[in-house]
């Protein structure tokens, strides 16, 4: 590739500290377009559930970079959906309390959180 073609690349200034900033304040990166993506950042799994294991209730927590529609489903070990809710998550940390009585008793469950095409799944254990 010739030097002149490289200089015309939209990624040419990606590591230049004087390059323009994206709307979120980060330095412009590879590519010519900026997208304000939804992120869920609570821990390595993308969400946190505390306490886990739990008895009567547990709290699902996640952080969103912006407002988004979020769907939460709980499945038992046979893959049956035992509980579902859909709502709006505001920018920042969101919490959702899950009542053990709605799940059907002691056992292992999978909590699935989805928002704008992104999906996170985590196992939770109800003791009684």
Task: Describe the protein in words.
The chain has 128 residues and is mainly β. It has 2 domains: 1-36, no CATH class; 48-126, Immunoglobulin-like (Sandwich), CATH 2.60.40. Helices cover 4% and strands 43% of the residues. It has a 4-stranded antiparallel β-sheet with strand order 4-3-6-7, with no helix packed on it. A 3-stranded antiparallel β-sheet has the order 1-2-5, with no helix packed on it. β6 (107-115) and β7 form a beta hairpin. It is elongated and about 60 Å long. The termini are far apart.
What's a quick, concise take on this entry?
The protein is mainly beta. The chain contains 1 helix and 7 strands, in the order H-E-E-E-E-E-E-E.
Topology:
Blueprint: H1 3-7, E1 48-50, E2 57-64, E3 68-76, E4 81-89, E5 92-99, E6 107-115, E7 118-126
Antiparallel strand pairs: 1-2, 2-5, 3-4, 3-6, 6-7
- Rg over CA atoms, rounded to whole Å, is 21 Å
Give the N-to-C terminal Cα separation.
65 Å
Structurally, the number of domains stands at 2
Output mean pLDDT: 75
Percent of residues in helices = under 10%
Strand order of the largest sheet: 4-3-6-7
Q: What CATH architecture of the largest domain would you give?
A: Sandwich
Assign the structural class, choosing from mainly alpha, mainly beta, alpha/beta, alpha+beta, or little secondary structure.
Answer: mainly beta
Sequence stretches where pLDDT stays below 50 over 5 or more residues: 1-7, 33-39, 41-45
Q: Percent of residues in beta strands?
A: 35-45%
Total strands: the figure is 7
Number of helices: 1
CATH topology of the largest domain: Immunoglobulin-like
The CATH class of the largest domain is Mainly Beta
Biggest sheet details: 4 strands, antiparallel
């Amino acid at each position: 590739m010739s030097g002149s073609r490289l200089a015309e690349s939209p990624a040419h200034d990606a590591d230049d500290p004087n390059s323009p900033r994206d709307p979120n304040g980060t330095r412009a990166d590879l590519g010519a377009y900026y997208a304000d993506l939804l992120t869920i950042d609570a821990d390595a799994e993308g969400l946190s559930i505390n306490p886990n294991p739990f008895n009567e209730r547990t709290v699902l927590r996640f952080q969103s970079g912006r407002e988004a529609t979020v769907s939460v489903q709980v499945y038992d070990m046979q893959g049956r959906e035992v509980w579902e809710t859909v709502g709006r998550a505001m920018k920042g940390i969101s919490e959702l309390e899950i009542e053990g009585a709605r799940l059907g008793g002691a056992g292992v469950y999978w909590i699935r959180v989805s928002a704008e095409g992104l999906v996170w799944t985590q196992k939770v254990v109800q003791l009684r």
